[in-house]
């Protein structure tokens, strides 16, 4: 009869430490006798004895069954350094690509790079493996390929203006209860969205019978209270935000950029920040800031489009006739305001520089257009002159041929008369 298999038992860290300490306290008993008395497999006991120091020195909770550290290990031993490099470059709003990481590793970790590349079969395989390693390293640490957008002012200036506005707001509304402060944010809802692409046979037309290219749109508002009520409703844990990001990307339009859980969480927290209430009364400083923002946007040529009844006939909004004087006064008030701070002067300087740059570029474009027009006129005059010279030359050649023909005819007549008279 076969011997029944022993049932495997799972021990916790607390049980291991207790057994090892109990065995250390007893001196007149062997390991096998101790295993028989405690009903522990001798192979398990030998493994505990081999890892005795590590088990007793572990600070992991006694309810856990492992000492930790298991699982897939990081292949790059210096992972914190390239992460700091990537975050530093993105903090200064610069491009970060895989070849930037490859250059950084080559400049700072050449010994490790040489050992890694020497383990590959060929240079092509080594390059491809190294690039894939860094790309997966970036994705594993929550870096994704995104479409870059050009900034108008530095993030430091925007942060300083934002902090100044927050200080201005709380100076005025600090006495209100947080449950009475609401953050209202406009949100566009698109429906009846036509597909962005269609499957069409190669060589055949991709036309569709429905000529509408834009979806219908509604504008709604999202209102959030400034107290902790929202904290009970927001997703909790890292996986929950990833699920939110998955649902967002699944239902988003094809032209929308992909967003991860971190960006959505930051967006949610930004909506949860305290802002003025959505009542009919707008504080003067808020109204002043909004008008200043519109003037800045119009100066740099980035006027924001607003909701209109017909998107196809929507036009860009033009600034008022006295917009420059009003903007100048608003800028002066913003700079001298002690609640906003002196950092706003940098924003004003940047806007002025952008305005001067736009004017300079416009003048350069006009000068180039005038120069091109002059060059075109000059070429046209030269072509006309060459054409006229060609016509004159052809006319002279025709006159010369005509005279030659007349001379030949005259000579033939003379010769005929001379021969006739001689006969």
TrEMBL record:
Pfam families: DUF6818. InterPro entries: DUF6818. Residues 313-327, 364-407 have a biased composition (Basic and acidic residues). It comes from the Eukaryota. Residues 235-311 form the DUF6818 domain. Residues 302-327, 364-408 are annotated as: Disordered. This is DUF6818 domain-containing protein.
